[in-house]
């Protein structure tokens, strides 16, 4: 089956996030079983759940970009923006989990809690707006 690169990238990220969700689930289970209160560190739990969430989101992106009117180059750019931020977010949560941090990342203002978040908002929402625009344009207004 021939797919364009943007779809392949989105499906690859979906599979990687799904695998990461399963692997962080093992990590989470190990932490639960070795903890006195039988709870995993908060960021281990967040990394586990977020991986599954982003796996599904990547699948939705893959299906919607299939109907995009943009060139293959722009489709890759458009899907890369949210997918890379998804990945950086999960990696950040995993890092905090490895460091066994329990305080809220947003308790202090720094580069991550300001500029990274602004970039995340623009990349994720902007990317999805363009993906949805392409789907709506080709599937609802094709006859106009």
Fill in the keyword field for this structure.
144 residues, mainly alpha, Four Helix Bundle (Hemerythrin (Met), subunit A), elongated
Helix and strand arrangement:
Elements: H1 5-34, H2 42-65, H3 72-98, H4 112-140
Rg, Cα atoms, Å: 18 Å
How would you name the oligomeric state of the polypeptide chains in this document? single chain
The CATH topology name reads Four Helix Bundle (Hemerythrin (Met), subunit A)
State the shape.
elongated
Taking all residues together, what is the mean pLDDT? 93
- How far apart are the first and last residues' alpha carbons, in Å? 31 Å
So what's the CATH class? Answer: Mainly Alpha
| Main β-sheet description | none
Structural class: mainly alpha
* Number of extended strands: 0
Quick description:
Helix content is 76%, strand content 0%. By secondary structure, the protein is mostly helical. It starts with a helix and ends with a helix.
Structural description of this entry:
The model has no long low-confidence stretch (mean pLDDT 93). The chain has helices at 5-34, 42-65, 72-98, 112-140. It has a single domain (5-140), classed as Four Helix Bundle (Hemerythrin (Met), subunit A), CATH 1.20.120. The protein contains four helices and no strands. It is mainly alpha-helical. Helices cover 76% and strands 0% of the residues. Helix 1 (5-34) runs antiparallel to helix 2, helix 1 runs parallel beside helix 3 and helix 3 packs antiparallel against helix 4.
């Amino acid at each position: 089956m021939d797919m364009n690169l943007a779809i392949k990238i989105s499906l690859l990220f979906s599979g990687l996030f799904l695998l990461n969700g399963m692997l962080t689930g093992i990590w989470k289970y190990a932490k639960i079983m070795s903890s006195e209160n039988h709870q995993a560190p908060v960021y281990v739990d967040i990394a586990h759940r977020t991986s599954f969430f982003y796996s599904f989101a990547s699948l939705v992106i893959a299906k919607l970009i299939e109907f995009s009117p943009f060139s293959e180059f722009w489709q890759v750019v458009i899907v890369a923006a949210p997918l890379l931020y998804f990945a950086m977010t999960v990696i950040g949560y995993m890092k905090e989990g490895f460091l066994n941090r329990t305080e809220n990342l947003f308790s202090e203002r720094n580069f991550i809690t300001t500029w990274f978040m602004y970039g995340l908002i623009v990349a994720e929402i902007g990317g999805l707006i363009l993906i949805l625009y392409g789907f709506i344009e080709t599937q609802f207004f094709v006859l106009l």
